[in-house]
Design goal:
The complex is a heterodimer of chains A (380) and B (374).
Chain A (H helix, E strand, L loop, with lengths): L2 H36 L15 H11 L10 H17 L18 H9 L2 H11 L3 H32 L4 H7 L5 H4 L1 H15 L10 H4 L9 H26 L13 H28 L5 H29 L3 H21 L11 E4 H6 L9
Helix pairs in contact in A: 1-11, 1-12, 2-11, 3-5, 3-11, 5-6, 6-7, 6-9, 6-13, 9-11, 9-13, 9-14, 11-12, 13-14
Chain B lengths: L15 E5 L11 E7 L2 E8 L7 H5 L4 H9 L6 H16 L5 H29 L5 H20 L8 E2 L2 E2 L7 H23 L3 H7 L7 H6 L5 H4 L7 H4 L11 E4 L5 H25 L18 E9 L2 E9 L5 E7 L1 H6 L2 H4 L5 H11 L3 H5 L1
Antiparallel strand pairs in B: 1-2, 2-3, 4-5, 7-8, 8-9
Helix pairs in contact in B: 2-3, 3-4, 4-5, 4-11, 4-14, 5-6, 6-11, 11-14
The chains are: A mainly alpha (380), B alpha+beta (374).
Chain lengths: 380, 374
């Protein structure tokens, strides 16, 4: 490696880190504003115009707070855990392109690299759970391990199906293959699988089981404070951005689809903006889900993952393989995929076997009850 | 009654003991629930109470009757007007005071609004227990509207000290009627909005349907009352079975569940808000003019004797046992707090539950620790 390359990569990495930090700051503000909008509140309003400087104030607060080490904690594991969560989140961005050539280093096995690195963060959560020497943290860490490992399968399988369509693991090539139409049109079920499993990977509502505030009080993070807690926090928002960006790259045509006019610099700028807008829309969807859904229970989460998402992801791969092998037109895959998706929605919402009426309770009128005190619900 | 030891409630040495509370975000106050878990499953549970014990009952023995009302405000601090009503009616019964019509109506209107406010708080907090962030803000919006009306009438948002022996403290403000009209319309819309937001949500149903179910017999054996009992299918409501004040003049419904699970307990309360609204509407139509308080001596001295009085507070059968020795202070005051009695059913409801269910079940009983510990 020449000196020039070293300088190039160092500067590039620094620029990337700066950009991602900025994204995380904006995301924390945006999430609070989005949730406030859903909940009829104003959100942060005091620091800066409409609270725009709030993330900076939060950052100053977090980094000047005391870092507390519980006396029974496993010291080395406890301090390493935030790093073990934060570093993989950052490493993913080595190969994620935001526009043509706007990438630190495009890997030919980019998708493989991403699936490999994204699994690592589980270890950090388990380490945090163990190192804190706290029962809530321990339960939370084990929940995280179970949840993330099971949802890794549909997550990876959705990526595999995309790679089969594009005949490549190189993300740039996957995006180029979507120049005419995004893979969301060909594999709607793949998009559903990827987003659902992605939400579970992120540990966001409705899958925020490992740090559920009302049950395990923050799970693995319960003992952390100050800068180390901030590292978990940064990683969480960074991962949100990553999953949204991956959704755009793999299913929504990245910066290619629909095609941008102009060429040269204007084209690059426009396609970058286009990519960021699409990512923002996916992130808004994630925030929206957080504002509207309750949390699942761990066993319900597991059965949803293993009984529904895993078989569905394999069916998706088989359907893709069959269509590609026999050279059928791609719209055939769209139809198969839509059928699969329809079946899934039916299984989730109608729960075959149970009656479909609206749940309610019966109301006995006071007049009946005064006349005949032994009246009960069956007579009402 | 001795709680029956359940066959599954034997903890092994390898089971992990987890303290939920006294400092835990979803124990609704300073309540401690010790659970022994095998993985995610609860094998045994043990509630510990007493962290908020203030000796209210004993304090009552050193206060004049009119001063006790403030202490009762602080028992069930979410449904305080219902508590005030209970102690005032008990004293009136002992002294044989006839309360003026208008005062009775004002009391009923405020108590039913208080019930709506209390259930709205439950609604919001229950959403939070289930992991949904949004319902609490919608529940609090409605509660805040009721609270604002209370402030206009009584002068205080929470600790009203408004219902007095023989009537109420002061007459309604001049703009009560228009304020009430807008409030009732807002509440009606608000209740429907809240219902739409959470009740039929697929995940919420998955979390609450069939969880923490107890049978009607078991509930009666454990002394469960109020919405928690009605959710088991028993149409027992003190307002009907032993009508007090002027509740026998109104026509309203008693919501009754089928399975006695968490969702039934939740939805019985949502339905009860609609019924309370209808009671308030009827009472507003019939509200007469006239005196707001009977002519009672400033320092009440009930004759020697004792009285027990039941009312239907938002949480269930709220009973007051009052013994007078003829002086200006009661000889003994005993409160039958519905939260305390309903809490007895917690262990039975936590059979075969998961850790996450503990929060859902506890939330569905809707305890107020001020009332549990007194």
């Amino acid at each position: 490696m020449t000196l020039l390359q070293v300088v190039y990569y160092t500067l590039g990495a620094a620029a990337l880190f700066g950009f991602l930090s900025l994204v995380v700051l904006v995301l924390t503000w945006a999430e609070r504003k989005a949730l406030a909008r859903i909940q009829m509140r104003m959100g942060p309003m005091r620091v800066g115009l409409h609270g725009t400087l709030q993330p900076i104030a939060d950052g100053i607060k977090l980094f000047t707070k005391e870092d507390i080490l519980p006396s029974w904690a496993d010291r080395r594991v406890y301090w390493l855990a935030p790093v073990a969560v934060f570093v993989p989140a950052l490493l993913l961005w080595v190969t994620l392109p935001m526009a043509r050539d706007l990438v630190l280093r495009n890997l030919e096995l980019g998708l493989f690299y991403i699936t490999a690195i994204s699994v690592l963060s589980v270890m950090g959560l388990v380490m945090a759970g163990w190192g804190s020497a706290n029962k809530y943290a321990m339960i939370g860490g084990l929940r995280a391990a179970g949840q993330l490992v099971s949802y890794e399968i549909p997550f990876i399988m959705a990526i595999v199906a995309v790679a089969m369509l594009a005949q490549s693991l190189d993300i740039t090539k996957v995006v180029d293959a979507q120049a005419n139409f995004g893979y969301a049109l060909i594999q709607p079920v793949g998009l559903f699988l990827f987003l659902t499993a992605g939400l579970a990977e992120l540990g966001r509502t409705p899958f925020d089981i490992h740090h559920a505030e009302s049950e395990v009080v923050g799970g693995p993070f319960v003992e952390y404070s100050g800068a180390h807690w901030a590292a978990f926090f940064l990683a969480e928002y960074l991962n949100t951005f990553t999953v949204a960006a991956l959704t755009v790259l793999l299913f929504l045509g990245g910066w290619r689809w629909p095609a941008m006019p102009f060429d040269g610099l204007a084209h690059s700028t426009l396609s970058l903006a286009w990519f960021l807008v699409k990512t923002a829309l996916v992130i808004w969807l994630i925030f929206w889900i957080r504002g509207t859904f309750p949390r699942l229970r761990i066993d319900q989460l597991m059965s949803f993952g293993w009984k529904l998402l895993v078989p569905l992801s394999f069916l998706n791969i088989i359907a893709t393989a069959v269509v590609l092998f026999y050279g059928w037109p791609l719209w055939g895959l769209t139809i198969i995929s839509l059928l699969l998706l329809g079946g899934t929605v039916y299984v989730i919402f109608k729960n075959p076997g149970t009656d479909m009426r609206r749940e309610t309770v019966s109301v006995i009128s006071a007049r009946d009850l005064r006349r005949n005190p032994t009246v009960d619900a069956a007579d009402a | 009654m001795q709680l029956q030891e359940q066959p599954t409630q034997q903890a092994d040495a390898i089971d992990l003991m987890v303290n939920m509370g006294p400092q835990h975000p979803s124990t609704h106050g300073v309540f401690r629930l010790v659970i022994w878990v095998d993985g995610e499953k609860i094998v045994r549970s043990e509630p510990h109470i007493g962290y908020l014990h203030r000796g209210s009952e004993k304090l009552c023995e050193g206060e004049q009757y009119s001063q006790i009302i403030t202490l009762f405000d602080r028992l069930d601090y979410v449904g305080n007007l219902n508590c005030e009503l209970a102690i005032c009616m008990a004293t009136e019964k002992l002294m044989g005071i006839e309360v003026p019509e208008r005062a009775e109506y004002i009391r009923v209107i405020l108590c039913e609004l208080n019930r709506i406010a209390s259930h709205m708080l439950f609604y919001g907090v229950y959403g939070l227990d289930a992991g949904a962030m949004t319902p609490i803000l919608y529940g609090f919006r409605e509660r805040e509207r009721v609270q604002a009306l209370f402030e206009a009438v009584t002068g205080a948002r929470m600790m009203h000290n408004y219902i007095r022996i023989g009537g109420v403290n002061e007459d309604l403000p001049d703009d009560f009627q228009p304020r009430m009209d807008t409030l009732l319309d807002q509440l009606e819309r608000g209740i429907e909005e809240c219902d739409d937001l959470l009740s039929q949500n697929e995940m919420f149903l998955a979390r609450t349907k069939g969880i923490g179910a107890i049978s009607a017999e078991e509930a009666i054996d454990l002394g469960v009352t109020g919405p928690a009992l009605r959710a088991c299918g028993v149409p027992e409501d003190v307002r009907i079975s032993e009508p007090y004040s002027i509740y026998d003049r109104f026509d309203f419904g008693i919501p009754v569940g089928t399975y006695g699970d968490c969702w039934d307990r939740y939805y019985v309360r949502v339905e009860e808000m609609r019924q309370s609204l209808s009671i308030v509407r009827q009472a507003m139509k019939q509200l007469p003019e006239g005196e707001i308080a009977a002519n009672v001596r400033r320092i009440a001295r009930p004759p020697k004797g004792e009285v027990y009085l039941r009312t239907e507070s938002p949480r269930g059968d709220f009973g007051v046992f009052l013994v007078s020795d003829g002086s200006d202070m009661p000889y003994r005051v005993k409160v039958r707090a519905p939260s305390f009695c309903n809490l007895q059913a917690l262990q039975a409801m936590l059979r075969d539950a998961y850790i996450a269910d503990a929060v859902i079940v506890l939330g569905s009983i809707d305890i107020i620790l001020g009332e549990v510990d007194r």
